[in-house]
Amino acid sequence: xxxxxxxxxxxxxxxxxxxxxxxxxxxxxxxxxxxxxxxxxxxxxxxxxxxxxxxxxxxxxxxxxxxxxxxxxxxxxxxxxxxxxxxxxxxxxxxxxxxxxxxxxxxxxxxxxxxxxxxxxxxxxxxxxxxxxxxxxxxxxxxxxxxxxxxxxxxxxxxxxxxxxxxxxxxxxxxxxxxxxxxxxxxxxxxxxxxxxxxxxxxxxxxxxxxxxxxxxxxxxxxxxxxxxxxxxxxxxxxxxxxxxxxxxxxxxxxxxxxxxxxxxxxxxxxxxx
Length: 274
Ligand SMILES: [Zn+2]
Ligand SMILES: [Zn+2]
What we know:
This protein has 9 helices and 11 strands. By secondary structure, the chain is α/β, with parallel strands linked by helices.
């Protein structure tokens, strides 16, 4: 009975009826529990974790963080097998603001993801289909190096329990022509030292790159070092909860892992793989 901790409610209302649809799919697919991990940019209370000069963030519909937290807490009280999380954007220099909000609410876990990089002109979201053309102006090797430096800093910040879609930088299929093994090995060592989990996410199969996050090479390196992993779907609708977890769990097992992890009140416990 695995868990899926990367789920977004953002396409629907913050209501128990909508939340219940996710739980129903999870139960049908044999999941033990699920966790919600909303994007902070929906909440005006989280504006401070982003750079001030970011018009895209300012254009997001401002929902109330209180409302999201209260919904998941209420679902717990009603006995739903759910956990409270957030998929934080890691942006260097904004760690204190993330720490402040992590302190202020009863989170079960925190996912740290890198979606935003600063180029010579502005901040850009590397995984946004509307930003795909920006990739044609960039040197993939340089972007990969910058991206993975941010991943290392996110892990080393100690703010997060899980690193989200660790190689999402490949999302549109832009790859460096140079050999990246040394960089990946260094990243894996930083992740291992930081003690964070890494997601093995089926979402990558549904992106232009059509490859699981992380890809086979990085997963092999993580497994060799014993970096802990958790399965994830990055569901944005109920039907995506636990998507392809048979394949995901098979990959985790084949990589040599015997357990995944569950989270409660920001502490983790091992869950043996069946
Ligand atoms: Zn993400
Ligand atoms: Zn996500």
